[in-house]
Amino acid sequence: MKAKYLLSIIVVCAAFIAPLFLESEYLLYSLLLVTTNMTLAVSWFLIGGMCGQILLGQAAFFGLGAYTTVLLFRENLQFWLAILVSGATAALLALAMTPLFKLRGVYFAVGSFFLNVLAKEVAINWVDVTGGSKGIGFQPPFPSYLHYYYMSLATTLSIVYLSYKIYRSKFGFAIRAIKGGEDVAASLGIRPITYKICTLIITAVFTGVAGGIYSLSLAYIEPQGSFSMQWALNGPFMAIVGGLRNLIGPLLGALLLTTLNQLLVIAGGLHMLFSGLILIVVIRFAPAGLFGLIEAIARKLRHTF
Fold it and tell me: For residue 199, is it within any domain?
């Protein structure tokens, strides 16, 4: 256990120190994308991996956080306050989604997915506020991606720490019981709807904050990009590929797949095709995810040697 804590400290220190020696803005942008996807994956792990609710609506929270941050920043609100407000607006949207919890399984997944479509259509048609499909431009608060990376890294570390605490708490026990069966959980005195709403709010807040930080680095936002389907699918996709047994899985999935996607983009695209193939292969041959596969290989090696 001490070795795991020591390794975690080393990784976190490297994440803070290594970017200081990078001169390429593209590499810094790639690191920002990695931490953004890590936040999405761990946030989804809470609602999907622990609570068992297949949420496909993260793009709505992400896009709402992006527009809230940029619009408030354009009105001369301090960028960090605008980012915090973006989390609050995402939480309000999560509360508005409460009726969706009357649906279960695939019906909840489909309902949450259409929330992305609805949010994007609102952004496209609310021209006076969002600029419509043309989007809006602004002057970013910082010239380098390094600043946004550190803000995004802090967000990632925050959701990881919070998720770790939740996993070991009574709240974590309750949402895992809900995943096992809502009727059984109710028989234990657990109110599924209350815990599902609270978990969704946490997911929404961190997704909205991630969207706010990412949008500030762009100097321009528009509905197609802010509410893109990649922000709806990255969280569940990377968490599932990495593995849902613990927090390491979503982090590993986000790191490996974001890196692979960036390399394939440089090589000429097809990153979505390869990502889909990876998901199929993992589900077929490593249902516990990449981290589960690594654990299984490590156990075999220990028994062999």
Answer: yes
